[in-house]
Amino acid sequence: MPGVSKHWRLDGRLALITGASRGLGEATALEMAELGADLVLVARRDEGLTRIQREIERRAPACRVLTVAADLGTEAGRSMVVEAASGFGKLDILINNVGSNIRKPMTEITLEEYRAVQETNLVSCFEMCRRLLPLLRAGAPSCVVNNASVAGLTHLRTGAAYGMSKAAMIQLTRNLAVEWAPFEIRVNAVAPWYIDTPLARQVLEDDAYLSAVLERTPMGRIGEPAEVARTIAFLCMEAAGYITGQTLAVDGGFTVYGF
pTM for the complete prediction? Predict the structure, then answer.
């Protein structure tokens, strides 16, 4: 784009995005494509991936897109993604976005449900980082951005299992930032508050709950998916080249709101 420094673009970079077919993953894929990146998009179902691929072709026709339908909550699904990405020989950007939740109090959630949340949210992130490290090293300087949540920073009504998975993801971000700095790999995270996505709308349809959320949000509104996507994209740019080990809350001020 004329007049825009290359430090604020992603031209020629290859990004792998998990959970890419809707919500924050979809918004991030569109943002990265418009900034010049090529994409490997991962989601469980082909239909959603086909839809987002068509939208990318309309908005950013120069973007090369590979889609992989795989469940990252399973070992087989993770292996499929690693095999597909290995065909490129390198990876510049890894965005661990996939996530799920089972909204129950701790006394009601079963061990099987707890494990399902951890497998999708945390184990998938850990395994994608671990197994894609050789490709990230080949693409260095490269970066990882983990999509955590303010639920990993403070109590929310989303349940202990979800909050635990996101808190662990934030700590993984810190550890890998230090461990992988010698490889020229930066590792950061974002921590969104309520964003206008299909998953969030399920609980925000309750007017009383929505009112409580807005009362605790200094900016007085729900966030937009594009606002999180742009933050993720920034962390992947050369402009953010000295930022690593950080978790950036995209929360309208929620996490700093006092009495």
Answer: 0.95
